[in-house]
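Help wanted!
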Amino acid sequence: MSAIRLLVLGAVRQHGRAHGYQVRNDLEYWGAHEWSNAKPGSIYHALKQMAKQGLLIAHEIAPSTAGGPPRTEYEITEAGTEECFRLVREALTSYDQKMDVKSAAIGFIVELPRAEAVALLKQRIRGIEAWRSSVTEHYVPEDGPEQLGHIGEIMNLWIHTADAEAEWTQGLIARIEGGAYTFAGEGERFVGVLADDQENPYATGERHPEDAR
Amino acid sequence: MSAIRLLVLGAVRQHGRAHGYQVRNDLEYWGAHEWSNAKPGSIYHALKQMAKQGLLIAHEIAPSTAGGPPRTEYEITEAGTEECFRLVREALTSYDQKMDVKSAAIGFIVELPRAEAVALLKQRIRGIEAWRSSVTEHYVPEDGPEQLGHIGEIMNLWIHTADAEAEWTQGLIARIEGGAYTFAGEGERFVGVLADDQENPYATGERHPEDAR
DNA sequence: ACCCTGCTAGTCAAACTTGACTATAGATTC
DNA sequence: GAATCTATAGTCAAGTTTGACTAGCAGGGT
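Answered by r_m:
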């Protein structure tokens, strides 16, 4: 699973109805273009694809007064909403060391009830632990890890990463259980989209040095 | 950059000359099909593509006695070898939280001189630190991290991950400086490929529970 | 003699991703 | 007042990835 479907679906859902450029801007506000494949082509492709699959409904709209080509607005369907929740739950539960999917899911975690979020994260930890022990059991030869040579370092990296993630997850659980953030059904939600008159402080143009290769 | 080019190029290089199925098997031995996109289609595609680009030379070979279609053997060129080293160096140096590229690079790290490996890893740490401080400076609003709401947790995840990776990298540097493993020019190298009569203990069929969604 | 399974080696269409490109309208500059 | 810039909204071809499929041969059972 790539992160793009979750990101696009979630973004449309927050507006109820949105056109591609709006989604693109929201995701940019999130910084998603830096940590996921949220690039124009992928976004528009995902919108069309999901419209074809019945998760979104496409409405043709007259060109905006601000110029540019005619827009297409997308409205989320019942099926789309279900799929969106399914994706969030899956991404929160499963361990697969893909930062982009994980990050996207955190972005939408508050759409769930608080108790469910905690439950999913706890299941995530169980998943990490299961994965960890399966790796150590399965990949360590009986005659000690040295037999793998430097290849063993790959395993070591996996384990280290898994442990770090379990720790971070524990921290997040603690913060959520401690009452942080506003979850579904707890009053007005935190809006992760830009107001119309607000400028995007994280817009493209100022690059982060992650591309300093 | 995806991991597939590095993996395929490196695998061919270890044999000097190899056909697609051999590469596929080597990568499976590495467990690469589990942590990267090393699937048949991608492998054969990468071979053809790199042959077109002059990194490999394709030789048509008669079908093996064991049946199956006629094979194509690929031989690495001078340019291919250079590219291979370039990719390893880049992957070791740059920080971009992609496990697959990182893992692949570790697999080939011993092809470099020990001193260079250490130097590259130290540069990696500098890169991580630079990235870390740019994130904290850039993404934390002046009025405290709370303004971002739960979105701040994404940043938190990044930072946590970056720190964990820096720590792991430090450990690896220490082990290498402590004399672990056999690097280029230090006698016979560790062979990460299967001998002909050896069965693959990590072959597909036994799945790891990372797909336990 | 016949079938079935499994291994060898690889192909293919469909889907996805990338990054550069288009076209329009208002704003700014010279 | 012409030229350039910027923002809007999106398209497109080229490249990549996926997962299912093909086809030949060997060996074992019946």
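OP: Thanks! One thing I noticed: Residues 19-21, 24, 40-41, 44, 63-64, 66-72 of chain B lie near DNA strand C (CB under 10 Å from a C1').
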